[in-house]
Specification:
The chain has five helices and nine strands, in the order βββααβαβαββββα. By secondary structure, it is an alpha/beta fold. The protein has one domain (13-157): 3-Layer(aba) Sandwich (Glutaredoxin), CATH 3.40.30. The strands form three sheets. The chain has a five-stranded mixed beta sheet with strand order 5-4-3-8-9. Strand 4, helix 3 and strand 5 form a beta-alpha-beta unit.
Length: 158
């Protein structure tokens, strides 16, 4: 079952693209973004990461960190970050603990073949740890701008 708006963000403790641990406790008291994406270095995931990275200064200005989450390992995240000059932090969720908790590990289908993968989803978490908004089945073009707009409204109200 997927997490929805109004529910508490599950606790997490995941390594980022540098191998540093990021925990939900570290983020307590301030809003943050979790964007779940399927795989490093694929076209849609690259575009999404580049768009969020391009707006990082604006997210930083309102005090809202952006964290990308996929099941890829730390080393792969590092290569992805360096190849595309990404500035957002990428969290490695290899055991799919946070991905599973958010209900975004789903059966997908491509060319008639079924497989398990991450359903592209973004969550805006309030400073109180409660999910303020969820975007499901994200279409990448313009998405980062839409999330920034919602984050500005939330940051301004807290």
């Amino acid at each position: 079952m997927a997490i929805s708006s109004g529910q508490t963000c599950p606790d997490f403790n995941l390594p980022d693209d540098h191998g540093d641990m990021v925990t939900s406790a570290d983020l307590k008291g301030k809003p943050f973004i979790l964007y779940f994406y399927p795989k490093d270095d694929t076209s849609g995931c690259t575009r999404e990461a580049v768009e969020f990275s391009g707006l990082k200064a604006e997210f930083d200005a309102i005090g809202v960190p952006v964290l990308g989450v996929s099941p890829d390992p730390v080393a792969k995240h590092g290569k992805f970050r360096d190849k595309h000059d990404l500035t957002v932090r990428l969290l490695s969720d290899e055991d799919k603990s946070l991905i599973g908790a958010f209900g975004v590990w789903v059966e997908k289908s491509m060319y008639g073949r079924k497989y398990m993968g991450v359903d592209r989803t973004t969550a805006l978490i309030g400073g109180d740890g409660v999910v303020a908004r969820i975007w499901e089945k994200v279409k990448v073009p313009g998405h980062a701008e839409e999330v920034l707009s919602a984050a500005r409204a939330l940051a301004g109200s807290q």
